[in-house]
Design goal:
The chain is α/β, with parallel strands linked by helices. It contains 16 helices and ten strands. The structure holds alpha-D-psicofuranose (PSV) and manganese (II) ion.
Length: 396
């Protein structure tokens, strides 16, 4: 295919790449050692929707906002009407619904894996409420991270907790309707440091297969040990038809929540390439691309726009891979040429391509400069500054 034709095809394919941003990405957050407050941080639900609309207006790629139940709908199902109002006011859809099983004092020894049946019941009720919230908002995905685990050998029964986990997820799956999906997120450690009840993709994939067809695995790129091959995990999940989506961020050491591609852009590119190598469109189109980053140092709006632009760049590079040629080279085991085929795409400067994509769609060619020129950040800093001088957060 001619380079021109390939570029045209990439321009069309970029339309299909949408990214969900998290409501908690706009709130004041920080490390457990300290929080650097930002004058413009969002606290109220409306502020989060307003900020999300700003990012979507500049990038044209973020039509939905992930919601965390306890932080955004503390009243549960009763708060759905407030969200619906924001959806119509700001033109941003309610995205994945994230249950919160990690903040309550009762969850010290676990939530759905707690040895106390009353605590497990409470946690399952929260999951069922989350399903109802998602139904009422027309949100497809319940995006579940379970923080359960234990800090010391012998302190908890790993085996009993597997069964309690299966039971809780089964009950959640049964309450969902056909259009809904349960995305099961894994994480090897933190907050628990001896074991986490869903520590890796294998455990998450088992749980998804165990509970039924509406359950999938969510890959948070920060939730792996150093040097783990994430694209291989992605390839396996695609093969198993259980890849639900991503929480994107980058990491240098652990779950660092750094900007996507800031440390290892080649890895994100390789993940996208693996997905784009899947020929079944039903599988690839159902993958949910979500961001899970809350910035403590970077300006929140700036960081979010930079994130979306970076994700688009890396996706466009992966779209450029000549996969037919790559397949031929792989079949002939022409190692260096195959590797170079991948690298050619990675090293292509796609920024002019993305500029045309934006111009054709009436978007600012450079969303980051457009944000700076818009004065939006200064405006919210003026409006929210006094309130934000003391810590008000909807984040742990
Ligand atoms: C846990 O580290 C996690 O990745 C989960 O997705 C939570 O919902 C999110 O972070 C909170 O920031
Ligand atoms: Mn996550």
């Amino acid at each position: 295919m001619h380079t021109e034709d390939r570029y045209e095809r990439v321009l069309d394919q970029l339309d299909g790449f949408v990214i969900e941003i998290p409501s908690w990405g706009f709130a004041n957050t920080g490390t457990r050692f300290g929080k650097f407050l930002q004058a413009g941080a969002a606290a109220a639900l409306e502020e989060k929707f307003a900020d999300a609309a700003q990012v979507h207006g500049l990038t044209g790629a973020t039509p939905s906002l992930a919601l965390h139940v306890l932080w955004d709908l503390p009243g549960g199902v009763a708060d759905v009407a407030k969200v619906t109002q924001m959806v119509s006011r700001y033109g941003i859809r309610a995205g994945s619904i994230n249950p919160n099983l990690f903040q309550d004092q009762e969850y010290k020894f676990g939530s759905i894996c707690n040895p106390d049946p009353a605590v497990r019941r409470k946690a399952v009720d929260h999951l069922l409420d989350s399903v109802e919230i998602a139904k009422a908002l027309g949100s497809q995905d319940i995006s579940l991270w379970v923080s359960d685990g234990s800090n010391y050998p012998g302190a908890q029964s790993i085996r009993k907790r597997i069964v309690w986990m299966e039971e809780a997820l089964q009950a959640t799956h049964e309450a969902m309707n056909d259009g809904q999906r349960l995305l099961i997120e894994y994480k090897p450690f933190e907050p628990a440091f001896y074991f986490t009840d869903i520590a890796d993709w294998g455990m998450a994939a088992h749980l998804a297969q165990h509970v039924g067809p509406r359950a999938f695995v969510l890959v948070d790129t920060g939730h792996h040990y150093q040097s783990q091959n994430i694209e291989q995990i992605v390839a396996w999940l695609l093969h198993l038809r259980r890849l639900g989506g991503f929480h994107f961020n980058d990491r240098r050491y652990a779950d660092d929540d750094l900007t996507i591609g800031s440390i290892d852009p080649y890895q994100v590119f390789r993940i996208f390439h693996e997905i784009l190598s899947e020929s079944d469109r039903n599988v690839t189109e159902s993958v949910a691309y979500m961001i899970d980053q809350s910035h403590n140092i970077k300006g929140k709006l700036e960081a979010m726009v930079q994130t979306v632009v970076t994700a688009q760049e890396l996706y466009a590079k992966a779209l450029l891979v000549d996969r037919e040629r790559l397949a031929e080279l792989q079949s002939a085991s022409r190692t260096v040429e195959a590797e170079e085929c991948l690298r050619d795409a990675f090293w292509t400067d796609v920024r002019p391509l993305l500029k045309s994509w934006r111009e054709r769609r009436g978007l600012p060619a450079d969303p980051l400069s457009a944000l700076r020129e818009s004065g939006y950040v200064e405006k919210i800093e003026r409006e929210r500054g006094a309130r934000n001088a003391t810590f008000t957060s909807s984040y742990a």
